[in-house]
Design a protein that fits this description.
With about 160 residues, the protein is α+β, with helices and mostly antiparallel strands. The chain contains 7 helices and 5 strands; from the N terminus they run H-E-H-H-E-H-H-E-H-H-E-E. Strand 4 and strand 5 form a beta hairpin.
């Protein structure tokens, strides 16, 4: 069906860390400071996927910054032994390293189970009127996934992580 195709992530061809950083900044709306941190992180990273997250201010206005931090910390510690986290100091609460893509999917399933109010309907579902009155229209955050393909090449995908 059309809806399933709409939910599939859009992929952008392989690029160096600077180009990948620019693509992610454009897709999820990063500040120039965050973009610099991301490019630095990409140039240091092994071949693991990174989930980049920008918290949605419209969601924070309703639920609060502390609620966002709880969810981000749950992503950071998913499948980790304390005190280990998926985010580094530079990427604290917004750049999360995973071993493989399926780990991101597993993490998302746990987050939607434990923090359902962090999720909204997809923009496509809202556009075609699938949402009941009062259904959440603001996702907690906007996300992209960067797959490290080779030393100088990254594949960037927009992610519907916070869309139910």
């Amino acid at each position: 069906s059309m809806m399933l195709a709409d939910k599939l992530p859009k992929s952008v061809g392989g690029d160096d860390p600077a180009k990948a950083g620019h693509q992610v900044a454009t897709i999820i709306g990063l500040s120039s400071k965050s973009k610099k941190i991301l490019i630095q992180e990409l140039s240091l990273t092994d071949e693991d996927p990174i989930l980049a997250v920008r918290v949605n201010e419209a969601w924070v206005a309703v639920h609060g910054q502390a609620a966002a931090h709880v969810v981000l910390d749950a992503i950071a510690t998913f499948g980790m032994v304390a005190p280990s986290r998926r985010d580094t100091d530079a990427g604290y609460r917004w750049l999360f390293h995973f071993n493989k893509s399926s780990d991101i999917d597993d993490c998302r399933r746990q987050i939607i189970e434990n923090y359902p109010n962090a999720f909204s309907l997809s923009p496509q579902a809202i556009a075609v009127g699938l949402g009941a009155v009062g259904a959440p229209i603001h996702p907690m955050a906007f996300c992209a996934i960067i797959h490290k393909i080779a030393v100088r090449e990254d594949d960037v995908q927009e992610s519907n992580f916070f869309h139910a």
